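Lab channel / #folding
Pinned by the channel admin:
"Please post every new chain as: sequence first, then the structure tokens as a reply. Keep commentary short and put observations after the output so the thread stays searchable."

First post following the new format, from NK:
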Amino acid sequence: MALTFCAELTAQEYISLWPAGKMPNSRGLVIKDSVANERIYRVSTPGMYAFFPSKQENKGSAVVICPGGGYERLAYITGGTQLAKWFNTMGVAAFVLIYRLPQSADLVQREIGPLQDAQRAMRVVRSRAGEWRIKPEKIGVMGTSAGGHLAALLSTRDEDVSSINDPLDKI
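Reply from TO:
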């Protein structure tokens, strides 16, 4: 998913979360992205948009941002890209998570889809921390509305629901 629908995001790097054919909890259906009124209603390929501060301002910290939207949509601008740009002004790298929504027909277990994507996002950021000049112990998570709930789940739930038996599972 290249989510090319938003001019505001085109300069940002899109990072896919799952290797092709390895997305857990997927029925393998072809889902078409759906975007309207600055909201994402369907996500075909979960991923993150990376927002990096300038090298001079980089503090070595990062945050994964989970946009809200009642688990029915993602308010990715007000609850994502605007926050990411604000974090960048403080020297913090930010990753706006585009996660699967529970109503997706592709999900086998709807209740764990968003958490699987959030767990994987954190692993991806930690695995590439050196490349991005981020200290792995200085990576946080935040969210707005339902994204805040997802951030809390990611921070407190011990169960690993995102394992696909690849090297990132060890991170």
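NK: The chain has a mean pLDDT of 94.
TO: also worth noting, The longest strand covers residues 92-98.
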